[in-house]
Amino acid sequence: MNINVSTQARGIAINNVLKNTYQLLSATLLFSGLMAYLSMSLNLPHFGLLITLGGYFGLLYVTNKFKNSAGGILAVFALTGFMGLTLGPVIGMYTTAFSNGSELVAMAMTGTGLIFLSLSFYAITSGKDFSFMSGFLTAGIIVAFLAGIAAYFFAMPALSLTVSAAFVLLMSGLILFQTSSIIRGGETNYIMATVTLFISIYNLFLSLLQLLGAFSGED
């Protein structure tokens, strides 16, 4: 009987983490979208790689430090809001530089949503353990990140597209990994789970947008 009670309690805890994660993720996506719209409305310039990375890693550090307190919620909104602000100029660039820019943005958003929902649904319903992907994802993200920086500073379009394609696969894998970790009890902090899923969605959207722009037929 004690085993059954313990199993029930564990199941309830996991469900709570999953519910809280998706509730917070939904709120942060809406807030980030609002910040992106504000950034576009104010016609803010592109933040640049150094400011974007500095802001991201700085706010990520703060979020991780306060992940077990109410301050962690504020840190998550600060992080996702900042990332939304950096996204605004990018979306604005696509809508002005491409004759079908609005369609490209809509397609990237739709593709991102379908990929996220499909992979999340599969991970939850199948209950499969994707923890084996941890090492591959860590190494792959580091390599792709460094390659992306090289492509940015040395203006290498072909490498940049390769990195975008790699990030589509890596972020898809990260969604599977994180969702699996939640439902199997490996991830118990919904704040950090939200951050991981948000960044996966953010990078997935940007990568799809870049690929769609490259293959849109316009220079």
TrEMBL record:
Record has DNA-binding as a keyword: no
Topological category with respect to the lipid bilayer: Multi-pass membrane protein
Gene Ontology cellular component terms for the protein in this record: plasma membrane
Location of this chain's protein in the cell: Cell membrane
Keywords per UniProt: Cell membrane, Membrane, Transmembrane, Transmembrane helix
Signal peptide location: none
Main location (coarse class): membrane
Family matches, as InterPro entries: Bax_inhibitor_1-related
Transmembrane annotation, as ranges: 21-38, 44-62, 74-98, 104-124, 136-155, 161-178, 190-212
Any matching Pfam family: Bax1-I
Name of the protein this chain belongs to: Putative TEGT family carrier/transport protein
